[in-house]
Amino acid sequence: YQISMTNPISSMSGSATTYNPTGTFSITQPLLQGAGPQVVLAPLKNAMDQEESNKLGMKQQIITTVSTVINDYYNVVSSNAQIIVQQNQLTEAQKTLQVNEAKIKVGMSEPTSIYQTEAQIETLKLSLTQAIIAAETAKLTLLNDIGLDPNTKIKISSDIDIPDARIPSEEECIAIALKNNISYLQVLIQVRADERNVTVQKNAQLWTLNATGSITTGASGSTGGPDGGFPSLANGRNFNQQAGLTLSVPIDNLPTQQLLVSARVALEQDKVNLEANKRALIISIKSQLLQLKSLYEQIKISESAVAMSQNAYAVEKKKQEIGRSSTLDVATSLTNLIQAQTNLISNKISYINAQTQLYSTLGTTLDVWRIKVRY
């Protein structure tokens, strides 16, 4: 519809000035092309989908940032745990060296028997230094990603606790991902927009048949008196009504036909993309769940390996005290213990990172960490 008003003021030589405003209200109702709620509301729905897509993009950025910070944090925890392992084993090696030196003094061992232990101590010192540097580097990365000054003093535990959050079943994970995965939802939004575009382009092929009507009130020309001036808008005499139909028939309108073909092709391509995205998402979830299960089993095995290595090292030390175990045997046992503890730390961190990645794929990272986003 359209509303307009004119305000002409006329004045001729020797006559009075006249003011004769007119008001017009006109309405056009499409009956074929441009008619129907699916066509009329298409721009509004496109705008709403665009807003939803923008929100999803913002949510994905936040999920990526949160996941990065989680990984950074556990890198620091892992490095701190490695420092403790290396420090404890260095202390153990130094104690073993003291025992060997005492045995050499009383003639129970050859002077060359301490060479292996001394070499191991130097290796452990180097490993400890590397672990400290790695921890500081990981801490700087974390501070940078959370936006803090590099000189900020923070204290992070070395304990690695496996989160006890329940991992949904495979069927639940797939259902959750299809409702929350950002990439899949954005492709789904694009398919909806393509479907609306096809509907609009189909409608554009129709004839243009519009019902029109208009009402005009007010004086015209140089009329004066009671039929002129502002009162003429509502005096009931200066009133005109019109109604009619307009028809336009396109003949071989190739540009609009090309738009329809292009819209159909885009829709089919995005439907194929949607199905490919869905398959890739399901495969990714299955793979990540298998990885989580495998890592959990590896953690259990690593815990058993650490316990057995600790027992083996304690036995070798006792045997060495009574002369039934060589320095090489003790050093080898200590190396095995260090490797078992390192593997346990690595497996725990890998499990936590895999869990973080799964939540990111499901699109539930913010829910797990109870983060509310205000748009």
How would you describe what is shown here?
The chain is 64% helix and 10% strand. Helix 2 runs antiparallel to helix 5 (182-204) and helix 5 runs antiparallel to helix 6. The two termini are 35 Å apart. It is elongated. A hairpin with a 7-residue loop joins strand 2 (9-10) and strand 3 (18-19). It is of the alpha+beta class. It has a 4-stranded antiparallel beta sheet with strand order 1-4-5-6, with no helix packed on it. The chain has helices spanning 37-40, 42-105, 115-145, 170-180, 182-204, 254-321, 327-362, 365-368; strands spanning 2-6, 9-10, 18-19, 22-30, 208-218, 239-248. The model has no long low-confidence stretch (mean pLDDT 85).
Furnish the topology, listing elements before pairings.
Blueprint: E1 2-6, E2 9-10, E3 18-19, E4 22-30, H1 37-40, H2 42-105, H3 115-145, H4 170-180, H5 182-204, E5 208-218, E6 239-248, H6 254-321, H7 327-362, H8 365-368
Antiparallel strand pairs: 1-4, 2-3, 4-5, 5-6
Helix pairs in contact: 2-3, 2-5, 2-7, 4-6, 5-6, 6-7
